Model the fold of this input.
Amino acid sequence: MDAGTELISSSTPTHVYAIFALVAIILYNYYTVSTQKEFILMAKTLKKWTPVYHSVNFVVAYMGIVLAAFTHDLSATVVLMIPTTLFLMISEIKRYKKMRVIKLDEKDKQEEFRAFAKKIYTMQLVAIVLMYTIAKLF
Done:
């Protein structure tokens, strides 16, 4: 097996597993926002998972770029994956920035944040599912 074939054969499963890991992190974060009643504990948990989220999202993007470059595939589907990855990154940054300025005594902002975070995680999951559907159809 030549080096190129070996690269592709290892990159494809890594890309897919990283996508599953990203979905698992999003679902876990959604679960945390939904079930953790103490805002401080919820914020600490989300703060711990934010670098993991961005690292996994980077792995997804990097493996996707490697696969697209090596196979010379620059289809509309591949081009659409770039803004999807950027959306995931930017929305997570916005969620984190909104969370970190909320003080312990601001109960109304805490509840507003919970609704905001649930919307963000829902949109992230929808973006991934739509991208998967488009990739399978085209």
User: Anything to note?
Assistant: The two ends are 29 Å apart (CA to CA). The chain has four helices and no strands. Residues 3-137 form a domain with the Four Helix Bundle (Hemerythrin (Met), subunit A) fold (CATH 1.20.120).
